User: What shape does this take?
Amino acid sequence: MINDGDRIIIALSGGPDSITLLHILHTLKNKLNITIYAAHVNHLLRGKDAYKDEELCKKYCDELGILCFVKRVDINQLAKIKNISHELAGREASYEFFDELMKKYNCNKIAIAHNLNDQAETVLMRMMRGAGIEGLVGIRPVRDNIFIRPLIEITRNEIEKYCEENKLPAAIDKTNFENIYARNKIRLELIPYMENNFNKDIIHTLNRMSNIIREDNDYLEEISDEIFKKYCYRKDDRVIIYKDAFKEHKTIITRVLRKAILQIKGDLYNIENSHIIDIIKLYNQNTGKTIMLPDSLMVDNVYKDIHIYKEMKNHNTNIYEVIPFNDEFYCEKLHTKIITKVLHKNNNDVNLKDSDMIKYFDFDKVKDNIILRYRKDGDRFTSLGMKGSKKLKDLFIDLKVPRHERDIIPLICFGNEIGWIVGYRISEKFKVDNNTERILQICIER
Assistant: This one.
């Protein structure tokens, strides 16, 4: 949890828990060879009491010779703007502040003063919300090798006793005793009732249960990581989950899906189990189906592979560029250079080796300008070797081109006729044959 040379920011509220944590780490800092700082976020929610807590933190840190950073955030206003709870807004504001300080002062860990009672309350709260085993793990002692909770095995009574014995100036948050919040009701009513009627050691019992569940959960996470590496990959703005992943046990695939969402979204806020079930249902439907998840997440069924990505708004589909002959042209919108050359077939230096990005056409069959554009309604195309034309939309389906890619595939056109679906096919109408005398070479560089 704490290593030699660590630089730690202590989340300091001014309450008994965080003051105890500050005092303990300050006492042990030379022995552990660590550097500590304190960070206090004033949420401006409790009137004068909030400012008293702020002053207490600054004064006590000053007495200990610890640098204390303070930030004031109007959590009430922030919650309204983001349309989230005060609790979530407060957490986001605090963690954003901690992140700023970590970068500025080259710190590597954040110490948070959660205790054993907090763990029990969290487990009970999640249990009543129907959480899976991942939720019943509760508060992890160490998360991401950054967030550490040194007091997680210590009860609230032990912390209060420590404060009393060491005469620590801890503030008491009066709202902790207001019986109006779910967590407060668990703390003030449910746990005392369970202690008096079922198990006087319920706090330790719940902690022991969460530790057992954590071991099982960590094992499942290891398996899920292996499956994710085997069947999932990141491509540009999306994570693609191959269909074979869905042959795995439901417990595993649900975790794999959460990992994929986490990669795209950055967190799992607003993602519920019902959304994971919706993705599994989508997999069992026909290709081409799409669902939307919270925070503009899109999920596509692409021939049984599942694509998860952020919805792209205001994509520019109006590209229309006239490409000069025997010249180089740079398309800013595509960040692409297009090189055109007119070659004579009887020239011994002509080498017609094409690739996905180099194609050849009969120059004398090209009767109009070279146009670069995206697809439009009504487009038809005659593939090389075919006699009749086909709707471009149907051709994309035949080629199993994912729906999200169809609107952003460049088309090289000669007037109104499509000559080249870049990366896929060239047209029969403009092919080089035995009668060709002049050849148009088009090269695309990205």
